[in-house]
Amino acid sequence: MTGAITTVLLDLDGVLYVEDDPIPGAVEAVEALRGRGLRLRFVTNTTSRSRAQVASRLARLGFTLPAETVLTPASLAVRRCGVVGHKRVKLLVAPALREDLAGLAQVKPGERPDAIILGDLGEGFTYEVLNEAFRCMEAGAELIALQRNRFWRRTDGLAMDVGAYVAALEYATGKEATVVGKPEEAFFKAALADAHDEPGHALMVGDDIEADVGGALHAGLSGVLVRTGKYRPGAEERSGVTPTAVIDSIADLPRLLDEGLPAPAAPSASPLRRRVRPRFGPAA
Ligand SMILES: [Mg+2]
C-alpha cells in the first residue's frame, strides 16, 4: 500500500541523473510513480537555468514531463508574489531566469517595488545595486532571495554566493529575507501549494541529507534519502538527520511505497534550520 502519500517531490541532480547519465531505472521509476496517480513535482535549486531549460534537459535524458511540473526558486518566487499580492517588483537576477519571472510587473525607474527578487548577479553585486536594494527594503519592499548559499566553487577557486549579500541586506535593514530555495520551509510550502497538497501526504526524495531530506522533514514532509549522486556512506550519522527511509536509488521508490513508509519521526528541532543550509552552491 502507498500509505497516505499523494505527492512526491523529486530532486533532480543525483536522484534522476548524474552529469549526463540517467540513474539506472530512474526513467522507469518516474513512469511507475506517475502510473499510480501520484502528483509529481521536479524540484531543483538552480538559479542559472529556466524551468523550460531544465525540462528540455530532462527530456534529452529520457524523462518526459510538463515544464510546469518543474519547480525552481524563480517559479516559486512568482507564486509567492501572487499569494502576497505584490504588484511591482525589482529583478536582480541572472539573464537566463528572466523568462521565468516574465509574469511579474517590474518597476519603472524611480518607482518603489513591493518586492526585490534577488538571485545570482556575480560581478553585478556592486555597492550601488546593494544600496538601492537596501533603500527599497527600508521603504517596505520584501526581499525574496532565490537561494542563500554562502559560497561556491568556481574553476579559479571559491567564490562568494548570493547568501552573503542576503545577509548583508538583512543586517543593514534588520529584516529577514524570504528564501524560496531548498532547504527553506517556504520552498516546501510553495511546492506543496503548487501540488494542492499537504505536508502529511507528501514525500521528498533527495541525495542531499541536509538540504533535501532535512529541509523536508523540518517542513513536515517525509524525506527519503537515495544512495546515489552526492550521497556518501555515513551521511545520516554525520548530519544528525534521520531520513524516513534510505534506498539504494530512485529505482527502489515504487517498491518502498508499495511496502509502506515507516512511521514518521518526531519533527526536527528548530536548530536544524540554521544547520541545514548548504555550504556549496548552486546545487541543482
Ligand atoms: Mg541533488
The tally of domains stands at 2
The radius of gyration computed from the alpha-carbon positions, rounded to a whole number of angstroms, is: 19 Å
CATH architecture label of the largest domain: 3-Layer(aba) Sandwich
What CATH first level of the largest domain would be assigned? Alpha Beta
Q: Extract low-pLDDT stretches.
A: 270-284
Order of helices and strands: EEEHEHEHEEEHEEEHEHEHEHEHH
Q: What sort of overall outline do the alpha carbons produce when their principal axes are compared? A: globular
Reading side by side through the largest sheet, how are the strands ordered? 5-4-1-13-14-15
- CATH topology title of the largest domain: Rossmann fold
Structure summary, number of beta strands: 15
Provide the residue-averaged pLDDT.
90
Q: Give the distinct bound molecules.
A: magnesium ion
Task: Let me know the CATH homologous superfamily of the largest domain.
Answer: HAD superfamily/HAD-like
Distance N terminus to C terminus? 31 Å
Q: Find the structural class using helix and strand composition.
A: alpha/beta
Helix content: 25-40%
Compute the number of helices. 10
What does this structure look like?
By secondary structure, this protein is α/β, with parallel strands linked by helices. It has two domains: 7-45 and 188-275, Rossmann fold (3-Layer(aba) Sandwich); 79-179, HAD superfamily/HAD-like (Rossmann fold), CATH 3.40.50.1000. The chain is 32% helix and 19% strand. It has ten helices and 15 strands. The strands form four sheets. The chain has a six-stranded parallel β-sheet with strand order 5-4-1-13-14-15. Strands 7-6-8-9-12 form a five-stranded parallel β-sheet, with helices on both faces. Strands 2-3 form a two-stranded antiparallel ribbon. The protein is globular. 46% of the residues are buried.
